[in-house]
Specification:
about 65% helix
């Protein structure tokens, strides 16, 4: 019944009384951002196309987010893809930018095999390369302040 629905401000106050999720895992970061935005999991699901069960599992630290889905939700909530850690960050960045491994390799000046090694965690992603990826994301998002943060 729609009469049972509570306004977002009441839900937000209730969530804040219970305490924001603690921790630095990706789901906790998303949960805090979602609650601050005054959204329920159902509302966030409808707006991003990621299922309620998936978002709920992330927030409860049951499942680790997949890069493409996390990129959709993170972008909507304004959460940094860095939250996933460097390996998944690269996958999420590629998904958000719509690049294949080969295309991302060309942009970064490396082979697609190097991209595969980074994404599989077999090699560490150099700090300069992470900065380039942040720059590409900032350019795609049109965020002027992120260039300095990316070190470019």
């Amino acid at each position: 019944c729609p009469c049972d629905a509570k306004p977002p401000t009441i839900r937000l106050v209730q969530a804040l009384k219970q305490g924001l999720p603690k921790g630095d895992w990706p789901g906790a970061v998303l949960a805090r951002a979602r609650i601050r935005a005054g959204l329920t999991i159902k509302e966030l699901s409808k707006r991003t196309g990621v299922s309620e069960l998936t978002i709920s599992a992330w927030e409860r630290n049951i499942n680790r987010p997949r890069a493409a889905s996390f990129a959709k939700v993170a972008s909507y909530l304004g959460v940094s893809l860095d939250t996933l850690g460097p390996i998944s960050f690269l996958k999420a960045a590629r998904a958000r930018l719509g690049f294949t491994q080969r295309e991302m390799g060309r942009l970064l000046g490396v082979s697609r095999f190097r991209i595969q090694e980074w994404e599989a965690g077999r090699r560490k992603i150099p700090a300069g390369t992470l900065a380039k990826i942040r720059f590409l994301l900032a350019e795609a998002d049109g965020g002027p302040g992120e260039r300095a943060q990316a070190g470019l």
